[in-house]
Amino acid sequence: MSLTLTSPSGxxxxxxxxxxxxxxxxxxxxxxxxGNPSYKKDTEQVKPYLSGNIEPxxxxxxxKAGDIYWGFVEALKDYYKVLKAMHTGDLxxxxxxxxxxxxxxxxxxxxxx
Length: 113
Description:
The chain has a domain at about 55-110. A hairpin with a 2-residue loop joins strand 1 and strand 2 (about 10). The chain is about 60% helix and about 5% strand. The radius of gyration is 32 Å and the shape is flat. Strands 1-2 form a two-stranded antiparallel sheet. The chain has helices at about 15-35, 60, 65-70, 70-75, 75-85, 90-110; strands spanning about 5, 10. By secondary structure, the chain is mainly α. The N and C termini lie far apart (about 70 Å). The chain contains 6 helices and 2 strands; from the N terminus they run ββαααααα. This is Hydrogenase. Keywords: Membrane, Transmembrane, Transmembrane helix. It comes from Palaeococcus pacificus DY20341.
């Protein structure tokens, strides 16, 4: 029984793949073992270098979801001001708007034919 899968674009053999995986794992371990032995994981060495400045807190440098849309919301703030004035939170109002706009669209489509 042959383990080689041959196709018009090449071949695939799991034993060959396993041999390359072991070889690359061995090469990775050799590179890892040649690293700096003075490195300590839980010390000042792991902090980023910020040219002598104190690292700001995560809350100060975090980009919030609202910040992503700031330009969009700021450009359309007059539009949103009108929408907020119209917003009642009552589901019946939304259904009335939906039916009204739907009736206008149907009127335009039927009237256009």
